[in-house]
TrEMBL record:
Keywords (A to Z) from UniProt: Membrane, Transmembrane, Transmembrane helix
Segments traversing the membrane: 6-28
Entry protein name: Putative membrane protein SpoIIM required for sporulation
Entry annotated with the keyword Transmembrane: yes
Organism whose genome encodes this protein: Nocardiopsis composta
Domain of life: Bacteria
Length: 38
């Protein structure tokens, strides 16, 4: 039971981390772009 919950949590957290990373890069480019010049 615990192993199943852990596997499901890892299965959910991997794409969530990927989406969070893409959103983080997108928002940093959008908001910090004019300030830092990147």
């Amino acid at each position: 039971m615990v192993g199943t919950i852990a596997a499901v949590l890892m299965f959910i957290s991997l794409p969530m981390m990927l989406i969070a990373g893409i959103l983080g890069v997108f928002f940093t480019k959008t908001y910090d772009g004019p300030k830092t010049g990147r």
